[in-house]
Every structure is written in structure tokens, then in C-alpha cells.
Amino acid sequence: MPIRQLPEDLINRIAAGEVVERPASVVKELVENAIDAGASRVTITTAGGGQSLIRIEDDGVGMDEADLMLSVERHATSKLADDGLEDIRTLGFRGEALASIGAVAELSIASRRAEDAGGLRIAVTHGVKARPVPVAMNRGTIVEVRELFANVPARRKFLKSERAEAGAVTDIVRRLAMANPGVQFVLEGADRTSSNWPGREGDGALRARLGDVMGADFGDNAVTLATMRHGMVVTGLAGLPTYTRANSLSQYFFVNGRSVRDKVLVGAIRAAYADFVFRDRFPVAAIFLAVDPADVDVNVHPTKAELRFRDPGAVRGAVIRAIGEALEAAGHRAASTVAGDVVGAFRVPVPASAGPFEHSSQGLLTSNGSTGAIRPSGRFEAPPPLGGGGSPTARFADFAEPSARYDVTDPAPAAEPAEYPLGTARAQMFDNFIVAQNGDSLLLVDQHAAHERLVYERFKAQMAAGPVASQMQLIPVVIELPEEDCARLEEAAPVLERLGLYLERFGARAVAVRETPALLGQADIEGLVRDLADGLAEWDSTAALADRLEAIIGRMACHGSVRSGRRLRVEEMNALLREMEATPHSGQCIHGRPTYVELKKADIERLFGRTR
Fold this sequence. Notes:
The protein is built from 17 helices and 25 strands. With 612 residues, it is α+β, with helices and mostly antiparallel strands.
């Protein structure tokens, strides 16, 4: 087949396929034009998921007749001062959007400048341009797109349902609203619930806008980012490690005001939260990065959704540092939504008629009714006193005085509960949970999870200062292991010594542990070594062991922390609470689970129906 020149209309439709993927692509291009035009209010109206109608109205600077005629031509733009692409400071710059949209839809543009007596409207139908006609309107621009892809049925049949396309439009507008807090966005139409995000001004504008778009919970459970590194400024909000989602859809990235998808930024988020977030959970964040335009190429994707950094390592480091500093400043703070989940797990008991202490077998505390106080018969039995050995008919007075079993008789708290954020200890439950009280809250603390985090942070601090201090074993602990595990531990010994663990080969199928990290105290040495051996087998490379130090430290911290089932004295419990308050990231354990739950007095009153 001989080579031939394609007709102009086919060229335009092919070019439109790169820029206009779906209705959301049209909305993105048109709203970006409105923002670049200096609009303070943008109204987006859709019908049929954007297939039937997209209408964008703004109060920007508007266009005169010459600009209006040129705006629908291919590769015509007002957003490049010269022919260079090294200093792009606008959202749109290719000059393809309006021409591409006009090639695959019925397009009309009406615009008026403030100094003009009236406006002008131009229509483009499937690539055919009409002459402009006068129109009465306020300052700004109104763009209407009807019957998208009507002349490209192959593209239209691959669109999703109206609801899915409307959802994609909403997502695009949400991202643009997050990046431009000073602009009011109104999203409406017959195919959706209306949204109105008013323009925000002042120091708290970004936080207020993110709260409007992402929900008030996010603002209440996020830390503020504000740091500069390698000439880059990182701002935004990052969720607390205990405030997570089941997927990464709530992670937003903006570079120089442009919403992007970038593997470098995704990897930076993952690395920054590596110590804190539970597996299969994803942190929530809105990261804004200001970079010298010369150091980023935004011209690598037709829709400008992807970009390329000149120094991706510096970008990654700047984001990790910003999140790390903000989370460290948050200290022991945990997400407030954890308490809401706990309150939601409670169920009010249903009284039964068999007796004054009988209740429904549905349970008192948990959704499955499996509490220690509920018997299969459905009868509620009062728990034994703190000292143990109590009968089911124990009196309330039995709980008033602490038991000698806990060695806390006649305690003398050093301060009132309100003086400490995590309060003072009142009791220990199930040999693992500390019950504390501050001014207006009750707190439940997981002693193992909390101490695990404290030990882990001490390990990291000692590692930063030099080798971890060790303690000699009076008698070396000999541990029998498979020969391949012994070989891996022997090869890893130099790295483990930096962590205070000194071991050596002891025959073909055993290792001898001579020194252990002093931080661990009376740890389960055999369990620790076996766990490390399993980790080395899993990582399958001792050469990369230095890169796994944090994982190794995590395993050591787990074995060296206060175990579940250990009974603590009141002074020990209070010491743990005070250390949590002084230790960064202590609101979650090294696996990402919360270390404590705080129930406000109002939450507890609500459980008993004492609403005001």
C-alpha cells in the first residue's frame, strides 16, 4: 500500500485520542485553562457522566476576538512566553486541548474581557469552525462540550457507565480544588450530588481546603508538612500512622500545583511510613512539592499526569524527611478515629426476664459476644476483684482497693491525671492492658505494643550514635538450628554485632550467643535468634543485610519488650506512660497498630445513653 497524507479531520481525531481519553480529561483541560486565566470561581456542570454535556464557567480574564479565534487552533497557546520548555509555570501549555475537543464533540466558547462592551461566542462542530457571534455575558469564559465522541463511536463504546464517568470527573475536580485553595469550585449536574468548595484564604487555607475535600477527619488526624531541602519545598498534610486506608487512592501528589502520578513520590511515602504502618494498609496524605521548573520535565505525557525529575533521589529524600520530621513532632499522638472504632464495637445489652443479672447472649462488649463476662447460658457474672480469686457475687467494694497481688497497695500518684496527656495508671486488665485516666478521658494502653515501640526507638537512637551497647551472658546460650540457618547467622555476625548481638558457630548445627543488646534485658534469646534466622532465610541475601537493619531491629524490639501476660506495678505502668509521652511515634507499634485508645468522657456517656 503506498504512503498517503491523512486528511486534516482524521489527523485531528487521532491527536484528540491522545489528549481526550474520557469526559474527565475534558474537564481537567478546561478547568486548568480557567485557573491559568486567573479565575476565582469555577462552576462545572455535567450531564450523562460528561458524555452529553460538560459546561465550565469561570470569571477569569476572558479573550478578545483574535484570541478566541486562535484558541481553537492546534498548537496555539498564550502560556509560553518564548519557545522554551524549561520554565513552565502554568498548568496548560501544549495548545492542543480545545482543538482536540472540537474535533470529537460539539464545542462552543463564549468569552468576554472586563474592558469589552460584550462577549463573543464561537462554535466548533467536529472540527468545523464557525464565525464568532456577539453574546451578552459577564466577564470570564463559558465553555460547553456536547455529545462527546459522537463522531468517534469506537471511542465512545469504550467509555464506562455514566456513574463511573461522573465519578472520574469528581476525582479530577477534587484534585484541582486541593491544589488551588483560593479558588471556589462548584460541581453540579443532573448526574451527581452538588458540591461547593468555597475559596479559602489566609495561613490555614490549605488545611481548610483539604478538610473540605478529604473530610474533616483527615484534618483532625494529620500532621503539617513544612520543610525545605535541596532547594525544594515540601508542604501539605500527612495522616497519622494509625489513620490509614485499605488502598492508596487517598494519596495525592502535587508538583508546582499540578496533580501527578509519580513512582518516586509513591516510593517516598512508602519509605517514610515503613516503620509505622501495618501491612496491607496505606497512609493518607496530600503532598505539595515546589520545585524549580528547570528541574522537572512535565512534557513527558500527553495529559501531563506524569513527569520526570532531574534528581529523583533528592526529591525522595526531601519528602521522606518532611514526613519524618512531622511524625516525630507528633510524638505519642494517635488517630482519633481509633476511639470511634472502639465505641462502634460496643453493643448495648438487651435485658432478659430471667433475673436481675441476666442479659442477652448477644454479649456486652464485642460484636461476637465472646467476652469473659458472658457465659453460654447468657448469664452475666461479675468479674473477680483485681487480686483474683473473687466469686461471681463480688461486691463493688472489692474493686475499690487495689490488691496486694499487684504490689500496689497504698499508691501515692505523683500528679493528678489531668497533668499528663496519657494520664495516670488506675489498673491493669488481662495482664496486658493498662487502664489510665486523664482529665476527661479514659485510656487503654497495650503494654506490649507500646514498649515494643519504645525499645525500637531506643535501638535506632543508639545505632545513630554508634554500636549498640551489649551485655555479656554469664553462660553462653547454645541454640541448635539447621545447618543452613547456622551458616546464614555466621555470615551475618559482623552486622549483628553492630546491634549488640554477638554469636558464633558452635559446631555444625548450633550457634552460641555470648552477648546480647543491653536494651533487651531478660529477653527470649532463643526465640530472637530463631526469628532472625527465619528473616535471613526470607531475605535470601546476607549481602543486603545492612539494608535490612530496621527490620532486624524491629524483630529484636519485639522480643525485648514487655510481654503480654506480665503483671506490672503502678509505678511501672506510670513510667511506661511517661516514656510514651516523651518518645516520638509511640502512638503506634512497629507493626502499625495503635498502642493506646482514648475514650472521651462524652464517648463513655454515649454508650450509656447519657446524651445531652
